[in-house]
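Below is our example:

___
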Amino acid sequence: MSLPTVSVSTQWPNVAPEEIEAQVTRPIEQAVSAASNMYQVTSSTVDGSSSVRIQFEWGTDIGQAAVEVLQLVERAKRNFPTDPTLQNPMVFKFDPNQMPILVYGVSARKTG
């Protein structure tokens, strides 16, 4: 089972992973580490893209967590480079409690 999770994705086209990590990923990680009920922060950085995933304790209201993460990211953005190709971070939420317990398909063969 997955914990309630918020993801922050930032695109910065044509920029090396090392630069994105230093100027975008790390500042976001540090900012979101202060979120309430935060369980774990993980990240990955590749050419032109940063992704930071924040997992929260069970029972955390994912809506409130997403708002708090968005506010923390907005503060971190103040220290981002002023490059016009650096896009605004996008915040996504994922709540495993809203996933179906069972998914199945039914099919039949036409006869006659």
Observations:
- The chain has a mean pLDDT of 88.
- The CA atoms of residues 41 and 54 lie 5 Å apart.
- Residues 17-32 form the longest helix (16 residues).
- Helices lie at 17-32, 62-77.
